[in-house]
């Protein structure tokens, strides 16, 4: 076995390829959601297989992250997309990061997509087309950069034009496009086409056209060599009208052609409850008294009364997609059973106000914090007994895996990645149909388990052993990369295409 493993490792080293991972977020530098977590953790895990480098815009927070940035290249202007410098940054224990430096586009107050008032930047089409173009320009530089990608891996709509520019500029390398959330599509007026330097024939149903607008996300779906999404169940769901966001016909065709697959996300090793320094007290399986120390901290933090009853938690973006309105409908069931509820997150003002109103009504049983704090969020996962995730759709979800790792059993809607990561009645609870009645039944099942300590302990142990870590999740990506490279070397078509049904 040792010789076999060594041989496999040597083979990996000899066959390492250059992968350019294109993203608009990176948790070590700037994060809005799960994309940032994946864009940090997945490239780190893939370093064992390939020379993977990350391309990200030079936002204000990236440039001021206390990491040295060396300018290594200049990227020329194209159409109305301005010239940029390309910086190089090294993060400890991570891949090299290429930073797209263009002050007029990226050095602004706000997040990557919107200003401090929550309004989308009016020039987002320019900002993220420039990101996609930069990936193509890097692929063209060859010896000028002393590194050239063999594969471009673009993520979500802000990076979706990378596969498209590669095709339009005749760059003969494969591309992967990963959909983290199909609902965010990057829609803009077709009047933008000349500014982006795009050929007019892309404004068709077989190209970027989507109900009279151009869709960045659709460009990624159409022109990438292969599409992935972040769970097997979500890959099937998005081929249906219910979850396909108007793109189900295209996605069903890609699925049937074997060009769409689901690869579940993992979590990084920092979510190990014995060693996480954020926790009040670390713990392992069956060390429930040590887990309880985190519960007591959460009670004090949120002003809840001390109780031996169950502690339910929500750590989430407060949005309709996440089913927070459904959670509002089961609060009475939790409170009447002697349970408590803590909520941490930000989102829609209506939901924020309603949750705060409930906290005022039940001051020692419900606690709400509008905002986010990484350390306290981890203590909530560790201190809670159950995590509420009634998402209407959930491409993958990471919170349920964080909770499981910390011995908190998720209660979740049977959709997307929640199906692929929660075994009903074993590592959590699933319910069918995004409605209050089904949700309440799942909560009642959880309350029953809580009253039976041996059953609760057994489920916790199974849950803690269930989440995949990234080192377990990267093999499918490696397999995909090698398959695409093999096809490319054999002269097979590597650009995506699609013809709409007549």
Automatic annotation (TrEMBL):
A family per Pfam: Glyco_transf_5
Record keywords: Glycogen biosynthesis, Glycosyltransferase, Transferase
Binding site for ADP-alpha-D-glucose: 31
Keyword Transferase: yes
UniProt keyword annotation of Transferase present: yes
Reaction it catalyzes: [(1->4)-alpha-D-glucosyl](n) + ADP-alpha-D-glucose = [(1->4)-alpha-D-glucosyl](n+1) + ADP + H(+)
Gene3D superfamilies, per database record: Glycogen Phosphorylase B
Pathway of action: Glycan biosynthesis; glycogen biosynthesis
Annotated function: Synthesizes alpha-1,4-glucan chains using ADP-glucose.
Protein name as catalogued: Glycogen synthase
Species this chain originates from: Cellvibrio zantedeschiae
Lineage: Bacteria, Pseudomonadati, Pseudomonadota, Gammaproteobacteria, Cellvibrionales
């Amino acid at each position: 076995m040792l010789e076999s493993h060594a041989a496999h490792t040597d083979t990996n080293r000899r066959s390492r390829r250059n992968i350019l991972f294109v993203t608009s977020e990176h948790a070590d530098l700037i994060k809005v959601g799960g994309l940032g977590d994946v864009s940090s953790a997945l490239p780190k895990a893939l370093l064992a297989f390939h020379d993977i480098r990350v391309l990200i815009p030079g936002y204000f927070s990236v440039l001021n992250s206390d990491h040295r940035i060396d300018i290594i290249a200049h990227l020329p202007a194209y159409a109305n997309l301005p010239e940029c410098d390309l910086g190089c940054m090294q993060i400890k224990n991570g891949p090299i990061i290429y930073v797209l430096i263009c002050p007029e586009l990226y050095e602004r107050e706000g997040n990557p997509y919107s200003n401090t008032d929550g309004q989308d930047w009016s020039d987002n089409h320019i900002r993220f087309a420039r990101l996609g173009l930069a990936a193509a320009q890097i692929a063209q530089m060859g010896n000028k950069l002393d590194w050239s990608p063999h594969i471009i891996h673009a993520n979500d709509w802000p990076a979706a034009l990378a596969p498209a520019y590669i095709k339009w500029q005749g760059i003969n390398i494969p591309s992967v496009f990963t959909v983290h959330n199909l609902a965010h599509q990057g829609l803009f007026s077709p009047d933008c086409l000349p500014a982006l330097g795009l050929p007019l024939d892309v404004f068709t149903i077989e190209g970027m056209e989507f109900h009279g607008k151009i869709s960045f996300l659709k460009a990624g779906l159409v022109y990438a060599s292969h599409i992935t999404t972040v769970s097997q169940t979500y890959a099937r769901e998005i081929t249906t009208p219910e979850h396909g966001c108007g793109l189900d016909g295209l996605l069903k065709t890609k699925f049937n052609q074997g060009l769409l697959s689901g690869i579940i996300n993992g979590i990084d090793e920092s979510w190990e409850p014995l060693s996480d320094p954020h926790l009040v007290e670390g713990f392992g399986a069956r060390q429930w008294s040590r887990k309880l120390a985190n519960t007591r901290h959460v009670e004090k933090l949120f002003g809840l009364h001390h109780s031996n009853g169950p502690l339910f938690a929500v750590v989430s973006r407060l949005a309709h997609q996440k089913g927070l309105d459904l959670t509002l409908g089961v609060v009475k069931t939790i409170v009447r059973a002697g349970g408590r509820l803590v909520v941490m997150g930000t989102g829609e003002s209506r939901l924020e106000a309603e949750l705060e109103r409930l906290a005022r009504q039940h001051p020692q049983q419900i606690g709400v914090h509008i905002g986010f704090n990484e350390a306290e969020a981890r203590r909530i996962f560790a201190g809670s007994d159950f995590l509420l995730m009634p998402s209407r759709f959930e491409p993958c979800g990471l919170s349920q895996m964080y909770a499981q790792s910390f011995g908190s059993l998720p209660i979740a809607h049977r959709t997307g990645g929640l199906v692929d990561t929660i075994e009903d009645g074993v590592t959590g609870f699933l319910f069918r149909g995004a409605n209050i009645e089904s949700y309440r039944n799942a909560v009642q099942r959880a309350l029953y388990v809580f009253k039976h300590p041996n059953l609760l302990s057994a489920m916790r142990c199974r849950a803690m052993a269930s989440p995949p870590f990234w080192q377990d999740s990267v093999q499918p990506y490696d397999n995909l990369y090698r398959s695409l490279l093999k096809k490319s070397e054999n002269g097979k078509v590597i650009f995506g295409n699609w013809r709409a049904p007549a």
